[in-house]
Structures are given as C-alpha cells and as structure tokens.
Amino acid sequence: MKVLDEVGRDTTSVFAYAGGVSELLVDALRFIVMLQIRVGETFDQAFLLGVQSWPIVVLTALFTGMVFSLESAVQAVSYGVGNLVGGVVAFSTVRELGPMLSAVVVAGRTGAAIAAELGSMTVTEQIEALQSLGLSPTRMLVVPRLVALVVMLPLLAMIADVVSILGGMWVAHIYAHISYESFIDSARFIVPFGDVLRSLVKSAVFAVIIAIVGAYQGLSTRGGAAGVGRSTTGAVVVSVILIFVFNLALSYLLYGGS
Amino acid sequence: MPEIWARIEDVCVRYGPKIVMENLTLDIVEGAITCIIGLSGAGKSTTLRLLNGLKQPDSGHVYIKGRDITTLRERELIDLRRTIGFSFQFAALFDSLTVGENVALPLRENTHMSEAEIKDVVAHTLESVGLAHMEDRYPSELSGGMVKRAGFARAVAINPQAVLYDEPTTGLDPIITHVLTDLIVTQRRRLNGTAVVVSHDLPSIYLMADYIAMLFEGAIVAYGSVEEIWRSENPIVQQFLQGSEIGPIPI
After folding, report:
1. What pLDDT digit, counting tens, does each position of A87-140 carry?
2. pLDDT surpasses 70 at B218
3. DSSP string for residues in chain B
4. pLDDT for position A203
5. How far apart are CA B165 and CA B152, in angstroms?
6. Cα distance from B155 to chain A (closest Cα, Å)?
C-alpha cells in the first residue's frame, strides 16, 4: 500500500507540474497575443540570454562537427563514398546536432540562469512585491525571457549549424583529403533549404521549453538558498529531458520518413 | 459607527496539514491605523496577504469596501492591488533597479504619467520618507532603515487607499524605529487612507495604533483601542503585553 501511495503521489505531482508549466505558458502567450511585451527588457534579455551564449554554442558545435567528420570521413573514403561526407555531416547537423546542441547548451546556461534569478526573486519576496504593485510576474519577467529566447535560440542554432559544418569540412579536408568543393556540393545536394527552416521551428520549440520550464521552476521556488539550488538543477534536468522527448516528436512531425 | 474598509469573515487558512486561521473574523476601520499583534507564526502576515488577495482563504470571505475579493479573477485582483500599498518585512526592493526605479515602477506600469511627472512624484515621495536625492542608489547601498523607507516610498507612490505594513520596525534600532513609526502616521494622514500594521513592537504600536487586534491560535482573541487592549483582562493578552513566560500561551 505504501508503494502504491508513493506512486500515486508522484503521478499527481507530475501532472501538477505539467499543469503548472502549461498554465504559465498559456498566460505568457496571452500577453504576447495582446502585444503586452516590454520591448526594452526583451532586448536586455536577448543580449543576456542569447548573445552572451554564442561563445559556448560555437565551441561545442565546432568540436562536435569536427569529431563527426573525423569519424565518418575516413570510413566514407575507404568505401569510396568520400564525396558524400559533406552531405552526411550537413544533414545530421542541420536536422539534429545544430538545434539539439544549441538547445542543450542554452538549457544549461540560460535555463539555469532564469530559474536562479526568478527563484532568488521568489524567496526574497520580490515576486510577491510585483504582484502587490498590481503587476503580473508573467508579463514583467516571463514574457521578455520567452520572446528573447524564441528569437535568439534559432539564430544560435543557425550559427551552430554553420560552425559545425565548417569544422567538419576542415577536418574532412585535412584528415581524409576531401576537397572543400566536393564537401560543399554534397552538403548542398543532400540538405534542402526546407530542412534548415524546419530546424528553426525545432529551435523555437526548444526555446519555449527552456524559458517556460526555467521560469516555472524559479517562480515555484520554496525554501531559501537551498530551494534556489534545487530549482536551478530542476530547470536544467527537466528542460534537457523535454528537449530530447520533443526532438523525437518534432523529427517525426517535421521530417516524417524522409 | 466608524466606516469599515475591510472585513475578514469566518476565514480558514491551512498550509498543508497546519491550520493557520480558523474562523477568523476581523473588521478594519477606514481612515485608521489598525495594528495586528501576536506571536511569530500566528498568521499576522497571512492576514495582510488576505487583504490584497495575495493569499486566498481555504474558506470564508474577505470584503474590501463591501466587495468580496475571494470571488475575483486574477485580472480583477491585479486592479485591486493597484489601490493597496504593501510594505514588506524585508522591503522586497527589486535589487536590479535603483531606489528611484523601484518607486517609479508602479507609476510607469500602472499610470499614463509622463517621465517628467514620474520623476517629480518619485523625488517628492522619496523626500516624504526622508530619502531625498537617493534616486540613483541601489538597495544594496542602503542601510536597513533606509531600505525599509524606500519600501514605504514604493508602497505609497501611487497614493493607495490603504497601506499594509508587514513588520515595519522589526530588527531596527530605537531611533529608526521611532522615525518609521512617525512615517506610518504621517503617510496615513497624507494619503487620508487606511493603514494596517503587523508588528510585535509594542512601544511602536502604542504610539501609532488607533485599533489593535490580537491573533492567537488562528483567531482574534482581543480587539479594541490601545487603552482597551492595555486594560484587557484576557490572560493571553496580558501575558503577551508583559512578555511573561507564565500564562496560557505555551512557550
């Protein structure tokens, strides 16, 4: 019975969490639809959450592209299909690696930052202070972060795509003597422009997950400094899990069997 | 008969299994300073949060000027809160904003005032709490008493019909305590409104209160003027006022 009790409690808390996150998202979307967006704050957040994330996104994308190319180029050449390496690297980067890598990196950096900031505001009563002034924390704090991330994460993913492909191209050239022209031609042939646009849709969805989960964790923080720590960790863990789950669903919906 | 600004009626509040309030009923007189006293954890701060809808009761009603706010939607509660100032125990100033920006925030977001008008109101409000020319300071650069006064300034900047003060003098030295007590009285007069103060700083309460309500174990056990409370024969009230270890209040 005790086990069943615990399973029941855990199930309830999962649904309560999902309900809370969904409610926050709907509330934020309502303000966005009504164009109640604080433009200055949104630009500030775009800089803090997006622009300042580019070095880490570039670094991870660069090395991942290089490793991917390193491991596939020699094999491909040995099978006589070295001319396909550019396509393989670009295909996997644009569809999966670019959006996923940038999202996971940003979830670790930015999702944690959102949860920590809002969590700290919650435990110091600053969120209640906003409410007592007749101001909505969703409009004041969540909407600017959500809009900023939805704009910035697809841009970061595109940068990640470009850097990863360039890194892969360089390694393929140095290590397997695949010419730049052959690499680029293969990439252009295999990856249609539609795939790039669809990958941006993925990034936008990941941005929503990171911003809303981070904000929800922050706003539901309880228990002082330790609570802020728990919220920050929770924001990253939940965001990353959701990014992987949604990536599967989005890949199926956007690309189907192609 | 004095007019009633707020009425808390048969309210029950629970935090998990803990019952904080049980059938609590309290009237707040309009145009007066009502002080709510009681032990730590008695539900004093929760009472303040009931009055501006930050906390919803599990049962019962809260009326502000005859309107039941427990049935209001969030949008309507937001409008209500714009007419009630709230001064937090630890001021809860936004630490990323300067003092001036903190005071200006409700004016910028809730009114159509021009920047010049906002600047004037901020300067005037800060001056009224003894913080003239402190607009550009950050909360971290202020002393405890100054932070509290900046919190007062933000709470009264929009000329609310009532101001709720949560432990305004706790942890401050006697001189600053006196200054803040005077401020609460002068701000109430300036706004011609109502003030509700949660505190257990008795000397301060005797100076400012028009009415005192004592909370004990989730209910009001005494209510009246300072003199009535002082003369109360209720042993709980007497034990609290005298700070005695002996009496019906369990230690």
Report:
1. 999 999 999 999 999 999 999 999 999 999 999 999 999 999 999 999 999 999
2. yes
3. -PPEEEEEEEEEEEETTEEEEEEEEEEEETTSEEEEEE-TTSSHHHHHHHHTTSS--SEEEEEETTEEGGG--HHHHHHHHTTEEEE-TT----TTS-HHHHHHHHHHHHS---HHHHHHHHHHHHHHTT-TT-TT--GGGS-HHHHHHHHHHHHHTT--SEEEEESTTTT--HHHHHHHHHHHHHHHHHHT-EEEEE---HHHHHHH-SEEEEEETTEEEEEE-HHHHHT---HHHHHHHHT-SSSSS--
4. 97
5. 8
6. 8
A134 in contact with B, Cβ within 8 Å: yes
A44 contact B CB<8A: no
pLDDT (tens digit per residue) in B51-106: 999 999 999 999 999 999 999 998 899 999 999 999 999 999 999 999 999 999 99
ipTM above 0.85, yes or no: yes
Using CA atoms, how far residue A189 sits from A91, A199, A200, B112, in Å, is 10, 17, 20, 57
Rounded Cα gap, residues A115 and B245, in angstroms: 44
Cross-chain CB nearest to A134 (options B88, B106, B154): B106
A184 CA: distance to closest CA in chain B (Å)? 48
